[in-house]
Every structure is written in C-alpha cells, then in structure tokens.
Amino acid sequence: MKKIFKTLSLLFALGAAFASCAPEEITFSHENPAFEAKEGMILIEAIAPAGIVAGDEIYIIGPAIGDSASVVGVKPEYQLEQSTTVSRKWGVYLNPANFLEGKTLADGFRFVALDKGHEVTPLNEEPNHTLNAVTGKSYNVYMAGAWSNDFLVRPLVELPEHLNFRVYIIDNTGWEGDQEVHLYMYGDKNDLGGAWPGIAVSGTEELGGITYKYFELGPEANQLEEHLIFNNNNKGAQTPGDQEPVITFENADYFFKVTADGCEVLKNPGMDKKAELGEIPEPEPVYPTPGYRLYIQDATSWPGNLYVHLWTDGYGTDWPGLAVSATEEIDGVTYKVFALPGEINGKTISFIAHSDENDGENRVQVDNVEVSGSLAYKLTAGAAEAITGITDPARIFLTDERHWPGNLYIHMWNDSGDTTDWPGVSGEMVNFNGTNYLMFTAPRKLSGQTVSAIIHSDENDGENRIETTLRLDKDRFYLLGTTTIFDEALEYNPSSLYVRDEMGWGENLRLYAWGTSEIFGGWAGAVANATVSIGGYKWARFDIAASDAHKEANLIFNNGNGGDGNQFDAAKIETGEDHWFLIKDYTCEELSAAKARIFVINNTGWDDADLHLYSWGSYEAYGGWPGAVSGGKQTVDGTEYLYFEIPETGITMNLIFNNNNGSQFDAASITSGYDVFYTLTPGTATPIE
Fold this sequence. Notes:
single chain, mainly beta, Immunoglobulin-like, 6 domains, five-stranded mixed β-sheet, 2 helices, 3% helix, extended
C-alpha cells in the first residue's frame, strides 16, 4: 500500500508541475510589441514574411483608407515603417478621424508592396483583413505568406505610360472585321467619346503575356460616372443591360473581359494610379511603304478583267486581288502594270494571275518569286514566263522642309525634248525605312537620265518654285530645306561591317558601338549576324539597318567579358556603307573591300594554264569566250585551290569551264556575293561545302 500511495503521489505531483508550466497561449518573439501605442491612434503592427526586406515600400490600403492609386506613393502617412528591434515587424499609425466616408478597419484592409505587388492568399485571392479596432491600442496582423516566409503577391505588370484614360479589354467576343468591338458610354455625359455605336478600338497592348485591346479617352472623361456598352459596331449585338459596368473615371486604366454574352470586371494587372490629364497629341499619320511593280504581257485572250492575287507569310491580298493600275508600252510591247504592296518587299511570294470571268479555269499560278525589285512575265493561257530587263522607273524621295502652300509637283525635261506635261509629276506620301517622304515617280522616257526640273507648288508657283537638275539613274533622295534651296540628301541604305578575326575570339566576338546611338545594343554589343567566306578568308559580318545609316559609331571589339585583355577600342566610322576590318594583337586595321572568289580543285586533266572560266548572265564577267584563266593559287583551310576573282557582288553568273580547245562543261548559276568552291572533274563541277 505504501508503494502504491507513493506512486500516486508522484504522478499527481508531475501533473501539477506540467499544469503549472503550460501557458494558455504561446507568444512568438515577432508577436511582441515593437512600437509604442499612441493616444488617439490605431497602431497596426504587421508581421511580414521574410520576402519583405529593408528598403521595401509597403502601404496599407482599404475602403477606409483609399485604393492603391490614391495611397501608394501619394500618402506617406499610410506607408509602413520597419521596426528597429523586430525585423519582421512593420508598423503604421492610423487616425480614424481621417477614414473615408464613415468606413472603419472592420470594412477590410490589405497591404501593397511597391515594385512587388498586391498581397494575395495562397489561393491567389486578395485577403480582407478586418479589425474592430479602437484608438490607443496596437494590433498584430499577419501579412499573407508570413508563415511560409514568402510574400505572396499578384505580380505587377508594367503598364504603358499615357495621358488620361484607357479601357482595356480581353476581347473574346468573336466580333471581327466591320463588326469589331466598339465602346459606347452614357451617364453623366451621354455619347461620351461619340454617338452610338461609340468609339472603335484605339490599339492593342501585350501585358503580362495577354493581348488587350484598348479604348482611349481624353480629359473630358475625368470624374464622370459612365455606363459602358460593348457592341459589334451596331450590327445587332451588345453587352446585356444587367452586365453593363459602371465606372467613375479617376484612375488611368480599367480592365474588362468581354464576350458576346457579357462583361466581367478584371483586376488591374499593374499598380492603380490616378490619371494624368492632358490633351492627346494628334498621332503621326501612317503612310504606306512603297512597293515595286509587276508587269504582265497579257497574251491569254481571256474574257473579263485581269487580277493578281498574291500571298506570303503574314500577308495576302483579298480575292480577287490586285487590279490593273496602269498600262505601259515598253520597247513596243504593251504591259498591264500592277502596283505591288510594300509589305512584300524582300519576301518570297506566290501569286495567281486570273480573269474575273470563269476564274476556275482562266488562271495561272506562279510560286517562289523573290520580290527584290520589279517583276515581269509573259502570260499565256497555261503558263507565265519570266521576262528580264524591265525595271521600275526611278523614284525621287523628297524631304520637304519648305512647306509651301498647296501641292508640290516636279516638271522635268531633257535636251532631246522629252518632257512632262505641266504642272508635272505629283507626289504621294510614303514611309521608307521608317522615314516619311514625298515620293515622285519619274516617267519612263526620262528615267535613267540627268534632267532639268522645276519643283513648284500649285499655289503662287511663280514664286514658290526652284529650278534644278535631277539624277534619275536610280532611286534618289533630295532635301527641299529651309536653309538650303535644294540638296541631294543622304541615302539611307543598310550596310555591314566585315571583321577578319585574328584575335581568336571566334564565336565569342562581340561588337559594341557608341556615339549617335548604340546601334548594336547595350554592352557588350552584338554577336555577328553571319560568318561568310570572301576572298578566301572568314569574315564575321555585323549588319546595320538602313534606319541606322549616317550615324557616328565608335567601335569597341570584345569577347563578351569586358575589362583588360577582353576588349579594345577600334575605329570611329560613319555608318551607311560597308567597312572591312582586320583585328589582331588588340589593334584594328581598316582594309579595302574584299572581293569574293571562285575556288576550284582542278582534276579535269587539263593543265592549270589551259583551264578557262567563262561567265554569262548580267554580263560577260570574264570577257568574251573563252573567258579568263585563274588568277593564281591560294590555300584556304589547308587546301590549295586555283581561284578566279569575282568582279562585283549581286550579279548573275552562269559558269562554263573550258580548255579553250573545244572541250567545255556547264558548272552552275550563281548570284555573286561570297566565295564558292568546286572540285572539277571531266564534265562535272561538284560544289564543296
């Protein structure tokens, strides 16, 4: 009995001990007060996750305080201060006398971190902290994610800067073409933006990987409460009346998802901000890119009218396609002329030439046509045969800084009596390589010549005129300036820098340029666009766009690392024409332009001295038959070749090897530009890759 009693006594004692040690509530260190309460103020001590660090700007927002647009960066009294004693605690004192419209913290509040985003729960919902708070006391509030040490946020999307107001929509309506979504508004001001069906889409923006359409409104919308009706341009569909959103225009941006059946209000993917009011400047007019011409000698006898429907990646004409824009007689042959759109410049297209009568049969299709200039074909009922030698007339691209009243014309004539009829050729506004010009097309009878000209206005043309000469050998650029009467302006052409790399940097070679602008991007610049073989050497080719022509560029070659041993200053150039450099031992030498070569291994059985190369095409590049012997021998990548130097780039060369003694064979047809390599055997030229 004594042992049992002692055991029971021990158990009771232990139980009492545990009971006396167990607190009613565990208090963590970060829950201890870190700020002093103040009379008349509510103290919020927010417990932050580890993702909030010193230097972050955190604000409290809510119905009693204001939204992020009216608080963040605007009202410093609502910015939280980090505790100096408990790093995870951030405090803010709130004066209920300043709360909005009788609201309290019981109506909810949450936190926003500038540059990080809005607080959200693990379920990606905005939290709604609530407190029945009284003044003179402090309250601990856990920010979302405080237990996981991650500040859970809805990441902020950077919104475009703009004046006044934008209404963004995710357009899931399916309304397209002439039924594209419009926005009509009524309320404080009916027909805001315009009478029914309202305003058309102003533009599109990709924000956070989502494409939005947006409607732009001016300062007249400020503080107006408006009902929004999305509709299909008065074609019978619109937002149902019970789903018309109502907004008061205060913030800069509003977001909605619109379907054919309804409208959903979306949260701003960025930071709410008050609209900055101001008059929206008139947008710069958008002018077309000038295209080339298609000349068709129509030998079909098809009834009806001839059309050309064409397509390429990302572009196509609506059926039936392009109509004839003019007819022109060239060397006694009549051609139907089609004005090709500038969108296809430099692209490879397919086209169907067809009649608008029985076009299922009266059609011919042509594929894989490169649009690098004018095109010409002889069209028969079953085929289209390419015609060479027809080029577009020269064009004059005029920058007009004189701005005479009226319309500009150019009257031209030559010494042989060929002339334009007065007042001359009219111009049209175009956009060429990103710059707007007034473009005049010379008549074919004067194209290719140097002519006399009068540039004049059709208003007061006795004074508003100049007499000059124009070179019409190709497209040319002129300036009608305010300080100079008339100058031939700079031509804006793409160009390239060719670099022979004997630094050994290879694929790591980069080129940076500073001056007028960083034409190869920020440091460390660009890698080469291509590596090409010219003259038996490998060249890294760095391309410069036409829009970057005539800029000052200070070149720095580097290997992407920077610092001593990894970079060196090179030449200072003006862009707009090709440049050639040899880099070696941290020095840069500018070279004359290299010429491409045709390299051959001669296994024909003919003596090297007897091997001739004849070329026909653009012209006889090596003179008349039998052509030229090789220029000598050159070792390229350890192999010895005979070489034939190519006189210029961009010419068509049809190659025939022969021994000038009755034996010959065709090799290949090439467009000159880079080196080509062949192994020659009797009757065959095999390309070497």
